[in-house]
Amino acid sequence: MKKRITIGTLTLLSLMGMFGCKQQETVEALMTLDVKADYPEKEWVVQDFLDVEYIPLETNDEFITQGSVKAIGKRFVLVTNLLNDGNIFVFDRKTGKAVRKINRKGQGAEEYAFINGIILDEEKDEMFVNSASNKKIFVYDLQGNFKRSFQHAEGAQYLDVFDYDASLVLSYFWQANKHVINANLGWNAKQSRTKEFSVMAEGFPNERLDYISFATQYQKNGSPSGNEYTSRLVGFLGNLNYSWDERYLFDLSFREDASSQFGADKRWAPFWSAGLGWNLHNEHFMEGVDWLQQFKIRGSYGLTGSQNYDPYQAITTYEYLTQDRYHFAVGAIAKAMGNRNLAWQRTWQQNYGLDLTLWKNRIDISADYYIKTSKDVLTAVTLAPSLGFSSYMDNLGEVENRGYELSLRATLIRDQSKKIFWSVNGSAIHNKNKLLKISNALKAYNETSDSELDKEPNTDGKKSEVNRPRVRYVEGASMNSIWVNHSLGIDPATGKEIFVARNGDLVTDWSSANYVIGGCTDSKVEGTFGSNFTWKGLSLNMTFRYRIGGQMYNQTLVDKVQDVDPRYNVDKRAFEQRWQEPGDKVRFAAFRTELNGINVAYVTRPTSRFVEDYNYLELATLNLSYEFGTAKLQRCGIKRLKAMFYMNDVFHVSNVKQERGIDYPFARNFSIGLQARF
């Protein structure tokens, strides 16, 4: 029987290695050393005085880890190469296995030119990529999909970030025969605080002398700007893990957390989870099955909470009017309305999966099916302008997500003698969401939004507010549904669009009363697949992305063709494929003539005319390299010489044309490198 009790403390940010507490020796067990004696030399080993967490990262020709670790989370480790190839490698922190490779390097609006740093936010499933050359911070999800970006402030900028994460954990371990118990009980407190301000300046001699001190003056009519964000969390936690004979597994965990991001009356919330696992490969009846290395069935159920929102959304905030003074006094106005009852968004999660490893670790398969039901979903509720606020945050609605995730990695050829290695990998993801329940506030939002679209819009630059589909909250429907009027196209006789009303009548006037679901942006399945091939010094790695099923609203055609102002530079289709005379069978409606005789486009409301099925296949990344033999190179003092070629967005095949518009073209880039070591 083995029994161990450990008390440990983890403090201040993320650490790869942590001091651990070992069992205390008695005073009688103290060792004395004779400094005059001749002892054999012994090399110090880190494990002699530290508990070190080793994460052996998977290495193959696609996942090259000769670079730097950019971010470490609870689940993932992000690594980049020293070469500016744009690759971001995502590894599983527990197993060290390669999860995926992300590359969004380029010159497009959603692409970075250089990676100066990465911040990982696992709670929101996001990473922040800082690109100094773009003067932007790009935000992607951990699948590599672009979400948003932030522009660097021009001029002098001060940034103060102070974060801490402190934990006190009591650990208990017990083992007897085939029974193993591991338990933890702890306390956790953390804070995230950011202060920043910037000053704009002008009058620099040239673009090279851009340091703030070279400016001749502050920006005309400018003033310093800044922000401050602070969020705190404190909680108690515990977990229990039990296994019998490495066959039957059970775990139970709980948390009680309080967050400053929620209302004063709703800050505390309990969360828990329970899971079961069965290692079939360790069963006696599986003995002798040499082709099976792992066969694990698992399932879990629990309640989790989310606080992925702005720090001050629950409190009323004010803005000082520093530019307007009255008798040397500075006034303030309410900026946002608080909500003392704003509570945690809670999610009930079910997950069922299996893990397979076959034929001497040549094939790895992982499959998961999940059901997530989110309650008290945080939503911005639109208010009447007369109240002085445009919106406030409240807990509204109930959303269900169902889906599956599949991943496969197979080694087809592994011949060390011939130096040939070939592996393939692939993943498939499917998710479908549905609104189970909405509040009266969301119903009122639908009515307000519909009435705005029913009004005749002005053509003064505000058409973008009404010419695209909006989110509508309808019970039983997906939040990603595309709400439109059903269109039969452009009438060849008149050049006007023909809609089908709910009662079946054909009309030419758009109306929110005739709303239907024209499609959904959710795909039936999407994912990646790739190939890694190595033969002697030659390596070829390819990563593909695909999507099958679902629809998209082609907003580019609406903005750049249908609703353009013909007085400016426009896409040629705005004239060549637009209705002009009776009998024209075209996709785009006719111009209309204003009272001043100028032709302008109709402002197009959401219509099924621009809903298109969306399937695609793209070669996202291509890596080709060759490492020269070292026998002849060593004579020249070269230890290693490697030539590399990298290219992203090699090709894109889709039933929806990639619309470029006329503002900024998409970019496809490649890089060539030569790496030498002397």
Description:
Among the domains are: 59-152, Thrombin, subunit H; 444-523 and 554-613, no CATH class. The strands form 11 sheets. It has a 16-stranded antiparallel sheet with strand order 1-12-13-16-17-18-19-22-23-26-27-33-34-39-40-41, with no helix packed on it. It has 678 residues and is mainly beta. Helix content is 5%, strand content 51%. It is globular, with a radius of gyration of 30 Å. The protein has 4 helices and 41 strands. Strand 26 and strand 27 form a beta hairpin.
Helix content percent band = under 10%
What is the distance, rounded to the nearest whole angstrom, between the alpha carbons of the first and last residues? 55 Å
Overall radius of gyration: 30 Å
Strand content: over 45%
The average pLDDT value, as a whole number, equals 81
Which stretches are poorly predicted, pLDDT < 50 over at least 5 residues? 1-31, 42-50
- Number of helical elements: 4
- Could you give a short account of the major beta sheet? 16 strands, antiparallel
Shape: globular
Q: Which strand order do you get reading across the main beta sheet? A: 1-12-13-16-17-18-19-22-23-26-27-33-34-39-40-41
Q: Helix- and strand-based class? A: mainly beta
Number of strand elements: 41
In short:
With 678 residues, the protein is mostly beta strands.
Key phrases:
single chain; 678 residues; mainly beta; Thrombin, subunit H; 16-stranded antiparallel sheet; four-stranded antiparallel sheet; 4 helices; 5% helix; 51% strand; globular; disordered N terminus
